[in-house]
Design brief:
Layout: H1 29-36, H2 41-44, H3 47-91, H4 101-114
Length: about 120
């Protein structure tokens, strides 16, 4: 059985508060490797950067879960109404006229938001 090296600790209580030799005061080789290695990305992120990334993620979720479906539904209905008016003008000799464009747009927005 080999004897422990002079630098290895025998037990936690064997350490004295003051180093007995200059070699004991030096850091271990494992800790010197971690000090000399470049810091990882997670270590360099500050609290502000983490909060910024979280807020960007929340904005992305808002955009993909709420705004894009709403806009798609609104413009889809608008396209459907336009297409139906063109079809009716082609199939039958009628003319489709929107008398109040503002209320037509408002009604389309309300209808698109009704089932979200």
């Amino acid at each position: 059985m080999s004897s422990p090296s002079p630098n290895s600790p025998k037990s936690p209580s064997s350490h004295s508060p003051t180093p007995s030799s200059p070699i004991d005061s030096l850091p271990d080789s494992a800790s010197s490797d971690t000090i000399s290695s470049p810091p990882s990305e997670a270590d360099t992120d500050s609290d502000a950067e983490r909060e910024w990334k979280e807020s960007l993620q929340q904005l992305e979720l808002l955009l993909t879960m709420v705004l894009v479906p709403y806009a798609g539904k609104y413009f889809g209905r608008k396209c459907a109404y336009w297409g139906w008016a063109k079809y009716m003008q082609w199939k039958y000799p009628v003319e489709i006229v929107v008398t109040s464009p503002g209320s037509f747009k408002a009604a389309g927005a309300v209808e698109a938001a009704a089932t979200l």
